[in-house]
Amino acid sequence: MKLFNIASIVSLIGITSAFPLTSKGPLTHESWFFDATYDVIATPGQVVTNTSMPAPGEPGAKGRFRYGINVQSQVICYNIELWGVTGEYQSPANTATHIHEAIKGKSGPPRIAFPNPVGNDRYRKSRGCIKGPFKTGVMANGADTGDGFTLDKIVANPAGFFTDSHTKKFVPGVVRGQLGGRRC
């Protein structure tokens, strides 16, 4: 298992101030070490419907999703940037920006919901860290699709997960990228 030091993390995530947790309080020093990092380029052509049919997202849009995962602490830090995404977000989940469990070309349930990137139609961003247990707001078989999800599942099989963001006009996804494609 590879751990990354603070210089690698600041470089990867692009944040020079302390990472805030969204609901669990300040990060502790052990959270600054990542077991795995991912740098994902998301494009409209990778989006599929719930039936795994191609459903290209917004033409000209692009996303960059950078993640750092600390398995022991169940902390995932994120730096999400979107370019050329227009309109309002829409999703049945708590937010419209997620990591889903599914291989390339398939759809699957969200496992982690991130704060939606904010900005304008040219550029939007979202940065920070969240700590499990994870909740998505999507119910399947009477349970939230984040219930019981742990970050070691991503580290063990990144190709089995993708990240995306959804808008009202592009409900299946505005952009999508597979985590297994590029690991730092």
From TrEMBL:
Could you say which residues form the signal peptide? 1-18
CHRD domain location: 36-181
Question: Pfam families attached here?
Answer: CHRD
The record's annotation in InterPro entries points to: CHRD
Please give the organism.
Orbilia blumenaviensis
- Any idea which UniProt keywords this protein has? Signal
Q: Which domain of life is it from?
A: Eukaryota
The name of this protein is CHRD domain-containing protein
